[in-house]
Amino acid sequence: MSAVRTLVDLLAGRADAATLAPRDWDGVISVARAEAMLATLAHHLRDTGLPPAVAALFADQRAAARVAQAQALWEVEMARRALAPQGIEFVLLKGAAYAAAGLSCSEGRQIGDLDILVQALDVRRAENALLNAGWEWVKSDPYDDFYYREHMHELPPLIHSVRDRMIDVHHTILPLTHRKTPDALALVGDAVATVDGYAVLCPEDMAVHCAAHMIADGDLQGGLRNLWDFHCLTRDFASADPGYWGKLDGRAAMHGLRGAAHRSARLARDIYGAVLPPGWDRHDPADLWFRRRLLARDDWGRQTDFLLQQAFYIRSHWMRMPPLMLAKHLWTKWRKGHNPASRGTSSS
Amino acid sequence: MRHSARIQVGPVRFRIGSDWRAPIAAIEALYADYPRDDARPADATVRLFAARPWRRWLRPSVHIGGDFVVPDALPLPLAMGLLAAEMGMNLQVALGWRRHLLLHASAVARDGRAVILSGESGSGKSTLAALLGEGDWRLMGDEFTLIDPASGDALAFPRVVSLKNEAIAEMTARVDAARMGPLLVGTPKGDIRHLVPRADAIAAMHVPARPALILFPRFGGEAAIEPMGEGEAFVRLTEASTNYTALGEAGFAALARLVRGTPAFGISYPDSATGMALVERLWAETAR
To answer: What is the interface pTM, i.e. ipTM, of the complex?
Structure first.
């Protein structure tokens, strides 16, 4: 069996870690690293019978993830100290939110940039407050800057001059030019507080955002990790609240993201063994392409299926902007010597 | 991948895959006498690949990939495939290893106690360590020295020594030709030739040593010894560490303990013989 399949089987509980041969582990470790899920796997397989070398490597990963998470949460606190005096409220998104709320998907989860959501009317003030508190613009070209400000759902990334950490200030969760327009006011208005007093999206919006990020916005790069987030979020929320799936359905529809939420749920079922309630437990032949894209990695951790990757890349742009604008955007990028298939503004 | 090898250096087990046979054959020849444990999975993967399928044969150039990659790293010609493999291995350790505090430093040991030599490339730390390793010292490594946060001990990473430029002739004159790899002429780092450490150094690669002396060598100028305070040694070693920040408090504690318990000196030396004599002198006078 391929290493990526073994990885998802281990996470889904379909495979027993004790039955893996050393050569199987080589591939699983490499693929998990490529998907930024090695520490997640290390948490998931804690206390199972692992070969000593794997157990030692996994202990390293758990310890490293603990440090990285503490550093990420420190960055959250730094943002609070910059924004709170100005009366700017912000909602944590993605990795930082999961960690701040102590959700199970945050165990071992890698946290990249700090993503926060503010009300659209606060964006400029938030930017000023951060610039005054030591963040600076990442040096980028004028077209990228213009593109972010005009069409994106976030400011151009800011980086802290001393701590070298990036912050993405969002005012909604999908690009402004995207075919779907989530209700940004409701996202901020219905946010909930963690025990430490940070705001995070309410449970339904959190899963909707995860699905939107994975299915409606990106090209499924790193999709296995996002899908794992979605799986853990919905599983845990549903076990605490029997009416969760129904609420999620309604909330996703309100944001125009019902399709993305349902597809995410089906993929979580197919790949991680999620148990879905009636109404969600359906089949869509097109899911096949998503599954293939998510599992397109060989035993050396390399991406495979180049054409499928490209197709999903084009799809992500197709949803993000109208055709004429897409043509103009790619033309500008091409003339500037960017390779359209590389990751520029458009991958954020 | 088409060709692959698994090797172990100190605590790290590597899996190296390649589109070509030659780099794997070169690695296997150099690491033939290293202990093998095929029941152990790899901690890190290195990939040597052609960017386009036809570049396997047509002006073949070796791209360095793996679990961790440096964006925009330049490929090397196939004749330097061995160097590409070495760079790929270093990269995985530098960016991925978390069990120990990693110092970009060479080290030698005697009686279970280690001399750690930290410096920029060109400082002569590799050459000094290699030369000492041919005498009555055990070579622990020419590139990385690992500090165990739990015990404070130094751990060896005795990969094959990468000799550069003038050091090549100096070593070739002293050691058995069977321990030398092929001469790689005109690499981005100058001429390079690899030296397999002595069998006793390889056999002892899992044996820790207590840090006894930290030296910051500088090649060139009059022979000189300059005692260094804990603070300066600390700051210099944070700069020489690739994972100090990532380790957080554990890294700080390990490094603080190292500089508090180990005397440190800057040394300048005009030639290898003087450098070796300075190390011996400091060892005799101050190592504890």
So the answer is: 0.92
% of chain A with per-residue pLDDT over 70: 97
CA neighbours within 13 Å on the CB side: how many for B40?
Answer: 20
Q: Are the beta carbons of B98 and A63 closer than 8 angstroms?
A: yes
- The shortest C-alpha distance from A54 to chain B (Å) reads 7
State the Cα–Cα distance between residues A180 and A203, nearest whole angstrom.
20
Q: A163, A75 in Cβ contact below 8 A?
A: yes
Q: What pTM was estimated for this model as a whole?
A: 0.92
The answer, yes or no, to whether residue A139 has pLDDT greater than 80, is no
- Inform me whether the pLDDT recorded for A112 exceeds 60: yes
Side-chain half-sphere exposure of A10, counting CA atoms within 13 A: 30
Contacts of B248 in chain A (CB under 8 A): 67, 70-71
* 3 state DSSP class of B46: strand
Tens of pLDDT along B205-262? 999 999 999 999 999 889 999 999 999 999 999 999 999 999 999 999 999 999 999 9
Shortest Cα distance from A229 to chain B (angstroms)? 22
Size of interface A-B (CB pairs under 8 A): 59
Q: Give the separation between CA B102 and CA B226, rounded to whole angstroms.
A: 25
pLDDT on residue B120: 84
Q: Do B105 and B117 meet the contact criterion of CB atoms below 8 Å apart?
A: yes
Distances (CA, A) of B150 to A126, A240, B45, B55: 43, 40, 26, 47
Question: Is B45 in Cβ contact with A301 (below 8 Å)?
Answer: yes
For chain B, domains (ranges, CATH) are 3-96 (no CATH), 101-286 (3.40.50)
d(CA A37, CA A16): 18
Both tokens of A129, joined, read: 């407050």
Q: Look up residue A348 and give its amino acid.
A: S
Answer yes or no: are the C-beta atoms of A168 and A115 closer than 8 Å.
yes
Are A220 and A347 contacting, i.e. CB atoms less than 8 angstroms apart?
A: no
A53 and B47 within 8 Å at the Cβ level: the answer is no
Residues shown for chain A: 348
The reply to whether A290 touches chain B by the CB within 8 Å rule is no
The verdict on a CB contact (< 8 Å) between A301 and B98 is no
Q: Could you read off the pLDDT of B165-202 as tens digits, one per residue? A: 999 999 999 999 999 999 999 999 899 999 999 999 99
Q: Which residue of A has its CA nearest to B98?
A: A60
| B285 C-beta neighbours (distance < 10 Å), count | 10
Number of domains in chain A: 1
Q: Taking a C-beta distance cutoff of 8 angstroms, is the pair B267, B222 a contact?
A: no
**CA–CA distance, A163 with A115 (Å, rounded to integer):** 16
| Domain hosting residue A133, numbered range | 3-347
Chain segment B79-92, per-residue pLDDT in tens: 999 999 999 999 99
- Search chain B and give the residue with CA nearest A53: B40
Phi, psi (5° rounding) for residue A153? -95, 10
Give the distance, in angstroms, between the CA of residue B146 and the centroid of all CA atoms in the same chain: 10
pLDDT of B57: 87
Of B97, B100, B81, the residue nearest B16 (C-alpha): B81
